[in-house]
Amino acid sequence: MKHMSSVLAALSAVFLSGPAIAAVIGSYTYDYTSTGNRDGQGFAQSAAGVQIVDNGTIFTDSFAFGGLSGATIDSFELTFAFSGAGPTSFFGLFPIEQWNASVGTTNPLDTSSFLLGTLVDDNSPATGFVVSGSTGDEADVFNAALANLGLSFSFAENGIFNGVAAFDLASVSLTVNGTAASAVVPLPAPGFLLLAALGGLGLMRRKSRTPASV
Q: Per-residue pLDDT tens for 33-59?
């Protein structure tokens, strides 16, 4: 009977537990060119996206991923589509536009934020902005995102000479990499029948070994 119980336990484990595989566990996108997807967040909006002027104005938004509670998150990756950032210099002589993107705070120039980089029109859509639990400000932002199950991002102009009147942000996408929380896989009907049959055999075997009453 003890052997039969071990078999039943092993079969239950196979049917009821799912494998944990590291992969993309969440994808989110804000399309600022369409009010049906995401509005202008208080900024002027057109077919080019939300328009951020270069007078010190800061644009900020955030992703929430509470649905990933219980998952193991390894990293976040952001992608930005934009226009109007201009080149970063005038024939390599002096800086013109320096539109910065950062995560972690509402101000890209805040020392507690993690500066992702400077955006240039030729690089749109800009990909490969990864945030992970490495060191310094990046690790602080990553750990805060895990604790809050959310990640904020912001854009602001930081150039000495502002050569372009506005920066148009078309979209921001976030990919969350890691391992999803373990899910219980429903036991299929044949599995229930198999377990029931094995259980019945076990009871019959036990009954046959019970001495008859006098």
A: 988 888 888 889 999 999 988 777 788
Per-residue model confidence as pLDDT tens digits over 116-171: 888 888 889 999 899 998 788 889 899 999 999 999 999 888 765 655 567 899 99
Distance in angstroms (rounded) separating the CA atoms of residues 129 and 111: 18
DSSP helix/strand/coil, 140: helix
Return the SS3 of 212.
coil
The alpha carbon dihedral of 25, 106, 29, 84 has a sign of: negative
For residues 183 and 120, give the distance between their C-alpha atoms in angstroms, rounded to a whole number: 42
Supply 178's token pair. Answer: 């890691």
Q: CA 43, CA 26: separation in Å to the nearest integer?
A: 27
Residues in the chain: 214
CA atoms within 13 A on the CB side of 182: 7
Confirm if 153 and 141 have CB atoms less than 8 A apart: no
- How deeply is 25 buried, as exposed, middle or buried, from its count of CB atoms within 10 A (0-12, 13-18, 19+)? buried
- For position 195, what pLDDT does the model report? 46
- Of 82, 174, 175, nearest in space to 124 by CA: 82
Say whether the peptide bond before residue 186 is cis (omega within 30 degrees of 0): no
Model pTM score: 0.71
| Burial of 77 (C-beta count, 10 Å sphere; 0-12/13-18/19+) | middle
